[in-house]
Amino acid sequence: MKKKIVSVLLCMAMITTATVGCGKKESNDSAAGGETIKLKVWAAEEDQDLTKELISKFEEENKDQKFDITVGVESESTAKDTILVDPEAAADVFAFASDQITDLVNANVLQEVQDKDTVTNGNVEGSVEAATVDGTLYAYPFAADNGYFLYYDKNVVSDEDAKSWDSILADCEAAGKKAGMVFASGWYAAGFFYGAGFTTELNDDGSTTMDWNKTSSTGIKGTDVAQGMIDIAQNPAFLPITDGDSTNQIATGSLGAVVSGTWDSTAVQEAFGDGYAATVLPTFTCGGQQIQQGSAAGYKMMGVNANSKQVGWAMELAKYLTNEESQKTRFEKREIGPSNIKVSESDEVKNNIALAAVTAQNDKAGVVQMVGSNYWDPAKSFGEIMAQGNPDNEDLQSLLDNLVEAASQASN
Amino acid sequence: MNNVKKKKNPMTAFFEAIGRFIKEFGQAVKDGDSGVKASLLLMGAGYWKRGQKLKGVLVTLLEIAVILYNVFIGFPYIGKLGHLGTVQQEMIYNPTTMKNEVNNYDNSLLCLLFGVISLVFLIVAVALWMVNIRTTYKLQKRAEAGKHINTFKEDCRELLNDKFHFTLLSLPVLGIIIFNVLPLIVMICVAFTNYDQNHMPPAKLFTWVGLANFKSLFTTSMTVTFGYTFRRILVWTLIWAVFATVTTYVGGILLSLLINSKLTRFKKMWRTLFVTSIAVPQFVTLLLIRNFFASNGIVNTFLAHAGITGFLKHLGWISTNYVPFLTNPTWAKVTIIMINIWVGVPYLMLIATGVLMNIPEELKESARIDGANKFQIFKSITMPYMLFITGPYLVTQFTANINNFNVIYLLTQDVYTTTNQKLAASQGKEIDLLVTWLYRLTSEQYNYKMAAVIGICVFIVCAIITLFAFNFLIKGDKEDTFK
Amino acid sequence: MSKKKVMSTIAVHVLLAVLAFIWILPIIWLAVTSFSGYDGMNTSRFFPETWSLKNYTRILFHPDTVAQFPAWFKNTLIIAIFTCIISSCFVLMVSYAMSCMRFKGRKAMMNIAVMLQLFPGFLSMIAIYFILKSINLTNSHVGMIFVYSGAAGLGYLVAKGFFDTIPTSLREAAYLEGASEARTFFTIVLPLSKPIVVYTVISSFLVPWTDFVFAKIILNSGISSDWTVAIGLYNMLKKQLLPSYFSRFCAGGMLVAIPIGILFIIMQKFYVEGITGGSVKG
């Protein structure tokens, strides 16, 4: 008898759930928005003010339409993680780093770009290539500086010596400083292999094909590259940096040279003072030769959420936030390297030391890195073994074999 | 003898109860009069016959609502439970409306979620229907025996008296069902699907795969390393739980004895000082401590200046220029256990203090009169009493430590990289507990199916330990030794 | 004899002092860094080089997109108050029912409760998220309140243990005078249980302040002024933000620790009182 009371409550809860749930679905189909277009934009913490400024300009230019645009905080490197949990709750327009594009496309999160020509003609080829998956353009690039290069202190390392790892390390040791780089990361460590002619390829099932355990197209053995990395790591003047810790390490002032990206340019300028300089990555000793260290060229782009209720206007907004004017403003306010061809050819951009270095490095030896989700952890642990100088003296060939095998797992 | 009976009891009792229930239902249908039989269709009929009009109306309304829900929502979802959706999402952009047109696609997770909810709801509804019949039959029996039949008011009053426990328990139990039981059932089901990053709704569908995930947990190759990782992490989880529980327990007791000793002044002040360390939220203190022990952190700088780092390197204990407190597997394990002592001892000290203050003084007095010294008193009176009272607490602490996410995650998340390639292939680390591995699998790899499998394994491990420990504790009933 | 006693007393106090120092050390570091004039984390010195109050002023009066402490504090306070009310009611209701009343299925329910708590909590994160989403409560503080207090009834053990020590004779006397079970609960048992009620209230109040896992999943709009204190502070220690926000993190940590600390100490007092004073034995 009294159990009825329980059941009444249970039932009411269910009914409420059902009606509310049902009701929500209906209102989705009807012409939501009507007059006011509601959009949510996600941008990195550092870009909040800039993005708000650009949005108000966008609203100005579209005066005949009412907008309600909110800006939330989401770092470009973690955008994919937040979005994939619930794509329908994610922002309509968001910024992300190019290495996340395949996962986002697989989850049907990115809206195909309708106005291809504006994007393709306006931005540098590398960025457009990075925004294209299977021949379809999925995003609006706005930054071409998400790569890494070499910063060095002219007072410690001369321009000539900055061309090879051996001389950099020697100079740093002489000055009592260190040369730092992140090894334990699939993004940084890959640079050594790309430079030696090795490749990574993403397959349809999410697995990564790598040839690092064999011989590259230029005839270099994978084990030689690994040995080259170990030689650098075992040099007493080398400081292995934990991924993400570079700003901290630079601030300590104990570095004479560091491999990093434009995000650290302020910190490096402060630390190196008048000796501030940046250039392409050096060469490293590998199998007796000097090989140019490659890098994973990265781009930042804006994506439109395909689940958005206002996909059309979201695309307009994304296009605006990444057009020539906006990229120019972005560079002026935050020194972000533009992907727009015209802006990147301006004098100010060319004179920016860090941007010049990253562009040069991308042109010289940058590879657009396309890998599956099972690549990252094995690569990170491989890099860590290298960074520690292979303390257990494991056989390099088997280390590479294990790495390749682990990364070749299908995404699961 | 006693124990075997106890272990079997819950299971057999459960099935016996169900059997009895169905038998009573059958009897009610067979022997019931027209009112009871009418209640088979119209649930309120039985009550109207006995004059409980209001109740009859309420019950009938309920019946209508339940039937409506099932027809329109419940059954469609339950139907989809078999295949978890067949229509994949497709979108076409319509330039004129500036919107995407989406087909009527199936979302596998929502199918599973609402399917389970509806199934549970259906089962509950059927059970209630059967209870209703039984109740009306009981009413009929009471009427035949001439006993008083409650009015509605009297029924309500009973809710505050004999049946107060229903009133008390209804809302909390509802909350537990919605926020604990249902999600749990759904996630257990996920362990039998292929819900991972390649099969993520709303874009893609996932479906049942039976025991395939469990199989992959127990096979090992270079590409499928889950079995290897699982074994290693399970072993470390158990070792960690033992060390963490024992060290904090012993430490807490020792500390509380120290503070409670007759020689100590300002007892309250000392206690408060230690409690302050747990007053600050764990995620603040643990992140601080993580930075404390970083490779170029304060502790390392201090050790380097004091020459200890060089000494350790000379001994061959470390191979780097800093002490890898949180980055080397062995060092990290020791450091984490040490830091956990810092975290856990104040709690144990509080509890131990409470228990210590409760030991009847007469026992200790009589022992002292008999000539026992401090150690003997401690060994034969204090410790056994402590163990007896805190025994159950120890067991819960042990299982809680198996699931101790905060300490491991906050101390190692961003700083520890594994050098074991097999572990890395399944996103594991040497210092991971099963729960931290589970969390990383869900939040970084979206590998929900393997995470669910691991969750089930954690449950099985904890259940075995709890059952084992409680049986052991009940067997050794120390209460008699006190008398 | 007296000399030995003096030596032992000194030894005990020295030992205690050393231990207490070790335990408080991180807290001291937290406190001094919150007054540091340097934004990032100083790894070479314990005490900051420059002292300043600006971390506190910045975090309280100059919120930016990363540090929105006043908003976080307000959010967490609201969530905590409601969680505390609902949780405590649930816990006390369940404990009383399990302890003082006897009904069919009581033992079964207690066993099920034990079993349910053996599952790791994070497992059901994603399912709870979608349950909340279906009733439109994600990204809302109401949703958070439900998450924290929904299954609170499972934590009834401590309160039940206390209720077990209340002599049945008291309740039976009330029945004889004609009081219903409900009346007994409210007028006799509850007033006697003040220590344990306070303990329950405070411990459920503290839950939202320290959880960052569930909060992050549910409050996912990216609008940082919606966050709770736990998410906000945790976010400040992200790799790229740490160098500029570490000392502000410490200031925030101190501001949170003080009320929580005070509440915790009060709660501990009531807890001990409940455990020891609750045994009304002779």
Q: What does this molecule look like?
A:
The complex is a heterotrimer of chains A (412), B (483) and C (282). Chain A is an alpha/beta fold. Chain A has two domains: 33-143 and 300-338, Periplasmic binding protein-like II (D-Maltodextrin-Binding Protein, domain 2, 3-Layer(aba) Sandwich), CATH 3.40.190.10; 149-296 and 363-407, 3-Layer(aba) Sandwich (D-Maltodextrin-Binding Protein, domain 2). Chain A has 18 helices and 18 strands. Chain A starts with a helix and ends in a 5-residue tail after the last helix. The model of chain A is unreliable at 1-8 and 16-33 (pLDDT under 50). Chain B has helices at residues 2-31, 34-39, 45-49, 53-80, 108-144, 152-159, 164-190, 212-217, 226-260, 267-279, 282-292, 298-305, 308-315, 329-358, 361-369, 374-402, 405-412, 421-425, 434-443, 448-475, 479-482, and strands at residues 91-94, 99-102. Chain B is flat. By secondary structure, chain B is mainly α. Chain B folds into three domains: 1-26; 32-210, no CATH class; 223-482, MetI-like fold (Orthogonal Bundle). In chain B, helix 16 (374-402) runs antiparallel to helix 20 and helix 19 (434-443) packs antiparallel against helix 20. The longest helix of chain B is centred in the first third of the chain and has 37 residues, at 108-144. Helix content of chain B is 71%, strand content 2%. Chain B has 21 helices and two strands. Chain C has a single domain, classed as MetI-like fold (Orthogonal Bundle). Chain C contains 13 helices and no strands. Chain C has helices spanning 2-34, 54-61, 69-100, 106-116, 125-134, 141-150, 157-164, 168-176, 181-192, 194-210, 213-218, 229-236, 242-277. The model of chain C is unreliable at 278-282 (pLDDT under 50). Chains in contact: A-B, A-C, B-C.
In short:
The complex is a heterotrimer of chains A (412), B (483) and C (282). Chain A is an alpha/beta fold. Chain A is built from 18 helices and 18 strands.
Task: Please tag this protein with its features.
heterotrimer; A: 412 residues; alpha/beta; D-Maltodextrin-Binding Protein, domain 2; 2 domains; five-stranded mixed beta sheet; 18 strands; globular; disordered N terminus; C: 282 residues; mainly alpha; MetI-like fold; disordered C terminus
Which secondary structure elements does this structure contain, and how are they paired or packed?
The complex is a heterotrimer of chains A (about 400), B (about 475) and C (about 280).
Chain A: H1 3-29, E1 36-43, H2 48-61, E2 66-73, H3 79-85, E3 93-97, H4 101-106, H5 116-122, H6 125-130, E4 132-133, E5 136-137, E6 140-143, E7 149-153, H7 165-174, E8 178-182, H8 190-195, E9 200-202, E10 208-210, H9 222-234, E11 238-241, H10 246-251, E12 255-260, H11 265-272, E13 276-279, E14 283-286, E15 289-292, E16 295-297, E17 300-304, H12 311-321, H13 324-334, H14 341-344, H15 347-351, H16 353-365, E18 366-368, H17 376-387, H18 396-407
Helix pairs in contact in A: 17-18
Chain B: H1 2-31, H2 34-39, H3 45-49, H4 53-80, E1 91-94, E2 99-102, H5 108-144, H6 152-159, H7 164-190, H8 212-217, H9 226-260, H10 267-279, H11 282-292, H12 298-305, H13 308-315, H14 329-358, H15 361-369, H16 374-402, H17 405-412, H18 421-425, H19 434-443, H20 448-475, H21 479-482
Antiparallel strand pairs in B: 1-2
Chain C: H1 2-34, H2 54-61, H3 69-100, H4 106-116, H5 125-134, H6 141-150, H7 157-164, H8 168-176, H9 181-192, H10 194-210, H11 213-218, H12 229-236, H13 242-277
Helix pairs in contact in C: 1-13, 2-13, 3-6, 3-7, 3-10, 8-9, 10-13
